[in-house]
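Below is how a single chain appears once it has passed through the pipeline. First comes the sequence as given, then the structure the pipeline wrote out for it. We keep one example in the README because the format questions we get most often are answered faster by looking than by reading.
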Amino acid sequence: MASGKACRDLMGLLLGVNLVVYLVVLGLASWSLDKYIDGEQNHPYLGGNPSTSFMLLFALMAGVVGICSVFVGIMHLRAWRSDSLAGASPLALISWAITALAFGFVCKKIILGGHRGKPLRILEAFIVISLLSQLLYLGVSHAGMFDSGSGPGYRNSHNSGGIAMGHETHKSDDITETIS
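Resulting structure:
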């Protein structure tokens, strides 16, 4: 497994990718949903089938929760402590679960067939990309389970249970300082 600095760098890269991908998902889903609400289901760039409206709703939710997850992940990356990991992990998992639901509707939409406009095909591709990148982010954020030097929340300390507490030492690049 990579060292702690490499995990942090990879996490920063994944957060940047997730932010861009979720912004695209949010933009395309909101535009397509606006066209559906206006009754333009036969728009040449839209098309779709009965599962399209469900896919758009879950893509919109995945985009919003995903962007919130990225912002909390950036705060965790800056703090790099176990208490910030405890806040970032559940939101990242919820974001991944909602994206997985949107991915399920993407699969159903493709199976049902019918006309799929270019924006919908692009949205489908970005939902798949966001599902995989969010899963990778979840894995990297929990890398400390496998290597105590990689993550903030799983390092062995001098306290009895080996659980990092509020008085844990903060790891910077090469030196260890105590946080009060």
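Confidence is low (pLDDT under 50) at residues 156-165.

See the next section for the split statistics.
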